[in-house]
Amino acid sequence: MATTIAAVRETTPGERRAALTPEVAKKLKARGAQIVIEAGAGASAYFADAAYAGVEVLAAAQALARADVFLKVQPPTLEEIAALREGAVVIGHLQPHLAPERTKALRDRKITAFAMELLPRTTRAQAMDVLSSQAAVGGYKAVLIAAEAAPKFFPMLTTAAGTIRPSKVLIVGAGVAGLQAIATAKRLGAQVEGFDVRPETKEQIESLGAKFLDLGVSAAGSGGYARELTAEEREQQQKALAEQLKGFDVVVTTAAVPGRRAPRIINAAMVAGMKPGAVIVDIAAETGGNVEGSEAGSTVVSANGVSIIGTANLPASAPVHASEMYARNLYNFLELSLKDGALTLDWDDELIAKTCLTHAGEIRHEPTKALVDTAKAQD
Ligand code: NAD
Of all residues in the chain, what percent carry a pLDDT higher than 70? Predict the structure, then answer.
């Protein structure tokens, strides 16, 4: 039987991405699936209903009631979960570390929920990796925000009124977002330096034409991620960084440690040592902040005139391309299970098994199960 795949408008304030684009709807139809969308499902990303060829346009409740598979950008609301049929599949960002009541609702409704954040980061999974595709949008946008807020040009300019020196830009954290930020700042003509605690990033930073800022601290962890720094390493990093920061016009911070609060890398004393008019953009503001005093969604100006800009949901600010990449990620993930229009989940495939949050009335991800159990004990 043909699988019915549904998408509705995202209701989270500020969310402008769409989980399903006309391009992906067409590809899913070509694989034998049926598509139902809520009227206006892609409107916030400029995808008109008419652009989704051959799909049924319904009210949200009807679309959800018909769905075998429900595609989301933000986690489903409790109302959406209640409107789904038992046994339906949900795929999207599910933020399993937050809101245990949502995971409970998915479990109790016997939803098969795939949290794309849990996708193993293997080579085969790259085309499905929503964290990477959306982080790239974030890194790009953060630099544009910094360039807009800075009181200086990024590039060197030789003009009749004299020569303008290029801005000095530092990118802290050279993961997916950081490397995209470095590339973007380079394209704008700034003098760019980057640093990270993973030693392999030196070569990656240099391959983009930027300089690696060596603070003498290395903290490679497991699975290609950083580990938390020891107190001594942190102190050494802080001391060296405080000195270096005095020379930068713009700093973009992107450092994260998976599943934990973002590390505090720049404190108030370091900000106080920076040039008046310098700009810091903290992409990690939403997960605790790399910069002391940063607030997600607002700009704080320090006493010495340094603007600290805390970003919130940057990918939503480029909804067309962010949606295109996100929807393709979900398509590539779905493709593992769609054969002649029918959905068959291969639980021996680690990409399916490890991305699964809930299935058949159980929570399959141990840390989330523990979180839900703790929340229950506190009730
Ligand atoms: P992330 O968002 O978890 O962290 C961003 C960066 O911050 C990382 O590079 C991290 O090392 C750095 N960081 C953490 N603590 C720091 C500190 N105290 N000071 C300075 N920097 C600090 O990372 P991410 O961008 O999601 O990716 C991390 C790694 O995973 C990268 O090596 C990336 O290439 C790899 N990756 C692999 C795949 C794949 O193979 N499928 C997909 C995506 C990412």
Answer: 99
